[in-house]
From TrEMBL:
Domain of life: Bacteria
A single GO molecular function term of this UniProt record: hydrolase activity, acting on carbon-nitrogen (but not peptide) bonds
InterPro entries membership: Amidohydro-rel, Metal-dep_hydrolase_composite, Metal_Hydrolase, Metallo-dep_Hydrolase, OTAase-like
Name this polypeptide is given: Amidohydrolase
UniProt xrefs under SUPFAM superfamilies: Composite domain of metallo-dependent hydrolases, Metallo-dependent hydrolases
Amidohydrolase-related domain ranges (all copies): 51-398
Organism (species): Parahalioglobus pacificus
Length: 431
């Protein structure tokens, strides 16, 4: 397939390659050229002066978690419910322009097998399998009255596992890779809307976090850690964790260590939304409201610190809920990226940085090892979007939404997103 008459954002550079053509052969980008490309027999798509760019990469999603709450999923949800929700979420993400998704807990390898075989439609899928966390921590989804050591709905489905010592971390970490994980997810801090854990929690000993890293290293992969407090981030980095999730207490000292360690961060920017305290799940639960107020005060410096001491940051939405709600949240997260950091930084965050991050799964566990992701260059995977206009000037063309809660349902795919190609196959073309 030959794309002509396009301006190319390559995932990295601030200037587009003007008046270019891009040739795709099979599932790879064969040629990127400002001159004419001879490709007899190719299907030609005239971009009409629009922008061609890499498919977006979501670095922290939960495709299997439909909500409306953790207790509801624990007590009243079957594997069929989870599977159907994950199937619908996968298609929604692809049609919003995300050709790669890294799942941050709750999904095993079955969804990727279905996508990659063509049985269902969805993005490339990097999965963490079961959340790993301590009793009473952010991966403890058991019912309130559940006795210690009893199995749960989440543990039976290998969606979350309680790990309270080094042996547990090793056993369930290795089982995650057995079940299709590409990396491990360790829950080091607490949360805001969760039941048992203060957000300030420092869960797990240093030896337990190091055990997770050890298991990941056995498979040539890495660990992503749910870390809020600065102390949590620093101990995770010291243990060898390569991906800090959320990282709301980020500052320039953390940035220095991250750069030394070659680590990444992903942050759901909706956490800094002015209306956060009005969200029903927060406002209607006194304990969560108190936690949210405390957290918001502590995390207030994140945006300024990230601008002052930037590190490799990938995109994160972290939606748990219905497909309709997550569609809205994804569009709002895109909008906030641009509001806080501008269009170029946001596009890099959503493309090439995400590509570098998922590649940390290594030679053995990376299910897509034959080309780069998140870039438009020769030899990269043909994961390609064409959007109206120039997103470096008008970011809304990537499918943003300016409202979160209370917003109207969004279209299945943004009108300004004209072409979606993944792995050399067209999933949308309105040109």
């Amino acid at each position: 397939m030959l794309f002509t008459n396009v301006h190319v954002f390559d995932g990295v550079n601030e200037r587009r390659i003007e008046n270019a053509s891009v040739l795709v052969e099979g599932n790879k980008i064969k040629t990127v050229s400002k001159g004419a490309i001879e490709a007899p027999g190719a299907q030609v798509v005239d971009g009409g002066g629009r922008t061609l760019l890499p498919g977006f990469i979501e670095a922290h999603a939960h495709l299997m978690l439909m909500g409306p709450s953790l207790p509801a999923m624990e007590a009243n949800t079957t594997w069929e419910d989870f599977g159907i929700h994950g199937t619908r979420m996968a298609e929604m993400y692809l049609m919003q322009g995300f050709t790669t998704v890294r799942d941050a807990g709750g999904a095993n390898g079955g969804l990727r097998r279905a996508i990659d075989s063509g049985a269902i439609v969805g993005p490339r899928f990097y999965t963490s399998a079961a959340f790993l966390g301590t009793r009473g921590g952010h991966a403890d989804f058991a019912n309130f009255t559940s006795p210690v050591g009893e199995s749960t709905n989440f543990s039976r489905l290998n969606m979350a596992q309680e790990v309270d010592n080094v042996a547990d971390v090793q056993k369930f970490g290795r089982n995650n890779f057995r079940m299709g994980a590409t990396q491990l997810k360790y829950m080091q801090s607490g949360g805001v809307v969760s039941a048992f854990d203060p957000w300030q929690l420092l869960a797990g000993s240093q030896a337990e976090i190091e055990a997770a890293v050890q298991v990941a290293n056995e498979y040539g992969s890495y660990v992503m850690a749910h870390s809020y407090r600065k102390e949590a981030m620093m101990s995770a980095l010291e243990a060898g964790v390569k991906s800090i999730e959320h990282g709301f207490s980020f500052d320039c000292e953390v940035a220095k260590v991250m750069k030394q360690k070659g680590a990444f961060i992903t942050t759901n920017l909706t956490a800094f939304d002015p209306g956060l305290l009005d969200i029903p799940a927060v406002a209607n639960v006194p304990s969560s409201l108190a936690k949210a107020k405390s957290a918001s005060a502590t995390f207030a410096g994140y945006i300024d610190n990230m601008k002052k001491c930037p590190v490799k940051r990938a995109a994160q939405t972290d939606c748990v809920g219905s497909v309709t709600a997550c569609n809205i949240q994804i569009a709002y997260e895109k909008h906030l990226n641009n509001e806080f950091f501008g269009p170029h930084t946001s596009l890099v965050t959503m493309t090439s940085t995400g590509g570098e991050l998922v590649a940390l799964s290594g030679d053995f566990m990376n299910p897509y090892p034959e080309g780069k992701l998140g870039v438009i260059e020769e030899g990269a995977y043909a994961d390609i979007l064409i959007v109206d206009g120039n997103p470096l000037e008008d970011f809304s063309v990537v499918g943003t939404g300016t409202q979160w809660f209370g917003a109207d349902p969004r279209p299945d795919s943004p009108e300004t997103l004209r072409v979606i190609m993944k792995d050399g196959k067209i999933y949308k073309n309105t040109l």
